[in-house]
Amino acid sequence: MRSAVSKGAARRLNGFLGDLPVMRKLVALGVSLAILAIIYWQVDPAAILAALAAADGPLLGLGLAMVIPITAATAWRLTVLAPGGAIGFWRALRLTLMASVLNLVLPSKMGDISKAYAIAERGHMSGPGALALVVFEKGWDMLALLVWCLFGLVFLGAEQAIFLVLAAAVALALLAGIALTVSPSAAGYLLRIGGRFAPAKLGRWLGAFADSWGEVLTHVWARPGRGATVVLGSVALWFLHLFQIWLFALALAATIPLIENLARAALSILVGLLPFTLAGIGTRDAALIFFYQPHMTVQAAAALGLLCTLRYLLPALAGLPLLGLYVNEIRREA
Fold first, then answer.
1. What is the DSSP secondary structure assignment for residue 109, as one 8-state letter?
2. What is the spatial distance between Cα 274 and Cα 217, in angstroms, rounded to a whole number?
3. Complete DSSP assignment for 235-256
4. Which residue of 22, 219, 262, 302 has the lowest C-beta tally within 10 Å?
5. Is the distance from CB of 34 to CB of 282 less than 8 angstroms?
């Protein structure tokens, strides 16, 4: 028999899945389609398809195959974080694939939050604690991307001073994020300060979340090796993402060194994380065209955008058969 914690977590996630903001998704889809329409109005779609057809087959295949180690590494990171061996690798892989499906319809990769159910379901943590743990995982995922973005902005700062200004802003965000994810006392202080200036409902939520967040930080850093593994693993995981994009760029005949690609790809992905489009479609494509213009044609950069979207579609397609089974499972428990 499942615990009361498990049933409560199932009910909350069931409600979450059943009440997705349909209108917001439709607006995001509309924005994505509008941006793509502008791109394809200026860039002949036939030329984009021609760039894809002329791509180097082995390099393209290697780039697509990178989806496998990237997905496996993401699942492994969850097993490191989960307390008491709550999540084995294969279950973590299943959850990662399922989250990939939800990330296509939820803003800013919020589909990953569904992983919290699996941890609470095992009874190893309360629902709020499990949610805080998954937020920690995604928080360091974002911070690792900011590390590469900071590198990119400093690297490109020699071209335009505006990049150095943006680098300073990213550095401040990075420092604040590190404080929130390393020091329980600093995190509690910042969350409660934020709660005072937030709307009443959000302020109350932040106050309650601060307690769970402190417990999670204590759990993670009780074994420094575990925290360090997650931190360094997240930075390495993003290197794999950026290396994959480099392989795509080379396949499309780009002339860009790996180091410079790390900078331009990281900034393009960050733009794609803006929450007003569907899964970054449109904004990420426009960013890739802008940042890669010194090294490839507009048609090839647009093709690179399609390949980057495929990076997210492949794990989602693999997870689609699992999603129905998982939702039915948690609804039965509810």
1. G
2. 27
3. HHHHHHHHHHHHHHHHHTT---
4. 22
5. yes
